[in-house]
Amino acid sequence: MANNVTPARWLGMGWAVFKEDIGNFILITLIAGALASVANFVVVGPLLAGMFIAVKRRMLYGQTDLMDLFAGFNLFIDAFLIGILTTLFAFVGLLLCLFPGFIVTAFYLFACLFLVDRKLGFWDAMESSRRLVVRDLLGYLLFVLLLLLFNLLGLILLGVGLLVTIPVSVAAIAVAYQEQVGFMAAPMPAPGPVNIP
User: CB 3.0-4.6 Å disulfide test: which of 3, 13, 96, 110 passes with 129?
Assistant: First the structure.
């Protein structure tokens, strides 16, 4: 199902997804930011997984549900490990030189989506993401650079711009995943109680 890597178009399509429900996406980002500021590295992976679940629901079913943010906690251990390992690998890459850090970030760009969509374990999700990105490493590096610059713009706008740039970036990554891999068509369960392992 792989198509060409088109970073600017993906970012534009991410913006279109965000515009469909601006209020909920900003609220989801606010809540995720508040929770991440309290428990930082422990919850970042599950919260990012929850943001991808919310975006997937919006893209496939035309609905956005605030509770999807917390559905990432149903995948807590795998999402936590993806978050920790990706951060650790990227940090080591940044210590070696700036460029390897970007490569590592590109490698694991889709790891949370493979976890959320295909229900892969953390290592299989990370490896699936890496195998996908290696096919056109330069294109995905440009995508990571574009997302970084876009979020830097949000940060420059007194940080308030991140309430827009973060969900647009998450949506852009989901759009790229949908085009390159394709979402599983299984119906999403209705939001309900969160099962924390």
Answer: 110
Contact 114, 122 (CB under 8 A): no
d(CA 100, CA 169): 21
pLDDT digits (tens, 9 = 90+) for 93-124: 878 777 888 899 999 999 999 999 999 999 99
CA distance 109 to 101: 12
Q: Which residues of 115-134 are buried (b: 16+ CB within 10 A; e: fewer)?
A: bbbeebebeebbbbbbebbe
Give pTM, 2 decimals. Answer: 0.90
What does the alpha-carbon distance between residue 66 and residue 23 come to, in Å, rounded to a whole number? Answer: 10
Neighbours of 68 (CB within 10 A): 24
